[in-house]
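Record type: ASSEMBLY
Status: queued
Input:
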Amino acid sequence: MSEVSESKTAESVIPDGWEMVIGLEVHVELGTATKLFCGCANNFGDEPNTNICPTCLGLPGSLPVPNAQAIDFAMTLGRALNCTVLPSIFARKNYFYPDMPKDFQTTQYEEPTNGEGFIQLPDGRSIGIERAHIEEDTGKSTHLGGGGRIHDATATLVDYNRAGVPLVEVVSHPVMHDAETARAYVAELRDILLATGVSDARMEEGSMRVDANVSVRPVGSDELRTRCEVKNINSLRSLGRAINYEARRHVDLWTNGEEPRQQTRHWDEDGGRSTPGRSKEDADDYRYFACPDLPPLTPTAEDIAAIDAALPSLPAARRSALAVAAGVEIIDTTLTVERGLDLLVIAGIAAGADATAAMKHADQNLSDGQGQLTPASFAALLVMEADGSLSSTQVKTVLAELVANGGEPGDVAASMGFEAMDTSELESLLDRIIGDSPDEWARFVEGDRKVQGHFVGQIMKATQGKADGKVVNQLMTQRALEG
Amino acid sequence: MSSAYELAASIRSGDQSALAVVDASFDAIKERDDEIHAFLHLTKQRAQAQAKAVDETVANGGDPGPLAGVPVAIKDNMCTRGEPTTCSSKILDGWRPPYDATVIGRLEAAGAVIVGKTNLDEFAMGSSTENSAFGPTRNPHDTTRVPGGSSGGSAAAVAADFVPLSLGSDTGGSIRQPAALCGVVGVKPSYGAVSRYGLIAFASSLDQIGPFAQNVTDAALCFDVISGHDPMDATSIPTALTPTLPTLNEGVAGMRIGLIDELMGEGIDDDVIARTNQAAEALTAAGATVERVSIPATIYGLAAYYLIAPAEASSNLARFDGVRYGQRVEGQNVAAMNVATRSAGFGDEVKRRIMLGTYALSSGYYDAYYGKAQRVRTLIANEFATAYQSFDLLLSPTSPSTAFEIGAKSDPMALYMCDVCTIPSNLAGHPAMSVPFGVGDDGLPVGVQILAPMLEEARMFKAAKALEEAAKGMS
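Status: finished
Output:
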């Protein structure tokens, strides 16, 4: 998972003796056809204020009616996160904001749809999830004039297309202790969302929004110190940077004998820092209470069984299956599963392919997916490589053609004029090239391996790539030893 | 004007035109509504268009429906497409909803003709229709008196014979109490029997739309039209409801009726108690068994109600913020605009209840106030359930007194006490209705309340009809 392993930069890691405590709140927009409580289209990027009706505009007298698909998606996500699906109630979170049409948000408070669960990371660790509850999204404000924030704006434009779009907020326990783990958690959550199809999980478009609760403590302590909630994190890269920055800021404060203020902070990606937003100490009292317009949700055991039955195979299970089939560690299956090549590789191995070769090709030569390549032709091609009937260079060429247009590897190889070359043919060719480049050959014999490519390249050129690079290398080594 | 039932029959048979009937209604309003002030707005064009459509249907041999051509007045907290809908509040002055409440659609589909929007206490908060930003409504029986409230305009419109039917909303007695004070029939249906879609919410878990009528038959006819499942209201009862009209005349023989002890003593005027006792005797004479029953938790109903209803209102009324519709008073920034708009737009009683409700839901006070009130609510529902194991129906006064003088109750607590008999049904979610039964010592109408178990409207209407028959023989 290349995205997960890049952000550890020297200046961002906190000093020895300190430990980060990280909890994540991830808002996921569900990819339902319509909004959570009305029949308006749930479409990103439409003309402003076109997907609206009395209910999602909060007009006087309008009422919410729960969208069955949204409830279904939320329970599906809950089960994919190993959560317990519970009887739940909608609550109102009361505060004034112009992009929130009713001036309360319909959410879930004390009784969420999904209770305790966990995400299993590729390295085998489990990250606990406290809850995954359903709520409605707000509209989108654009503040004109001033600093682009509401308090000094000269005017505010509001687009209510997003108001009432269904969200699930996935809340982790504060059990992560470094940015890498947080990133791995979010990457895994994204893969689960894509696998279940409940969201397109695009951080850049805001269909997956990550807020990080960060605090620090001395190593060995189990206290939870004052935390800050960092918002406006728009990529996995930003997540790592924001966490490391915030943790460092907290350590510096504590080290100077100060204490961080509990507050919401805004991540500034360009500036590489967070700036204070609302202070939580003087935050609104949200006056939560059960929404009297919405009856409780009471899924039956049958409902939950049906959700479970419809769940697709999830990344963690797919990694385990591939690890068993290919005889590798789970951590080494991550890339293949992320690319969705695990079933191809497993089927290829079952059809006779060498496991190591299959994994190698999946990692190195199928970065754009399997295309038209079938497990049977994948296996047949790898057998041809193993028995030497095609060189590894030829295999790569044939593989690319199979991905692009499909077909039988034998037929494709033949149509490209590929066949195994006689070793004696290669030997006489090598003799000729040694004759043409005596200086280079002398250096090779003295042990300068850098010139090896010169000979291989010449042979490949002369044979139009039909030669097997491995065989050429063997011949050269043998000839050098012979003197 | 004839009863709704008779009007519809004569219009369907072609004896009268709907247009002539609606014009007669507008004439009556023109003649006397300057004095009564039942209406805030008349929907003349819409009414005449609907009346013509009804007449055309009749001319073409079709059936315009059970309320064919019947003029109906609507409390101005129900949305009417393109027509002003104000809740008697300055904050909604000028707003015209882009949609109809479900009940409006049901009435018109049944052939009814909406003639206008009636006055109410602002956002239905009050018991006298004095808290209207557009001035009070007067009681047609004595114009120095209040019509009750909050649906005072709808009650007065029927009592003044402007229309045979109107709709009100009842959160703590806002249909039944004005019905009693105006001498008409008023029905608070089971919670969920009538769609709330398009009813501007006061307290969502208590609000219910219901009819006012000059007689029990018309009330039953209207209830049957407006009730039933609505997919637009998630609290609407999904099962089919029993029609009430067909069994209306079955009588009360064999019914066991409980007279609620706690509502027959302190705080209730003697003449009202006397009429209620007479009603009990009339039901006994009609073959029912009437016994006293104690429902102790009813005395906590008022206190629980004045925490739950304001709490929900504080949230429901947050949306009136000047951002999207209605009045806006500009300010330095959005928050200042919100404050300026709400300060100028809401009247004192609305502000009082928003503050009460905000406080009751506040962190640290929730359990002591809102939480405890919800437990009282459960207690009341349980005690009613127990009572209904022994009784088919319950009986009580509707209002502690007959109509009082305009301006007589300036203390909010004195007004809150008006709903002491009606609030328990809202908290329990059960149906209840007020039926006129004689007059008090001042010669003004007295109403008697019949309470029924959940969804037993048909049974409730039978007893109401029996009381109505008995009252005819009194005078």
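Annotation: Residues 1-12 of chain A have pLDDT under 50 and may be disordered.
Annotation: DSSP finds 15 helices and 13 strands in chain A.
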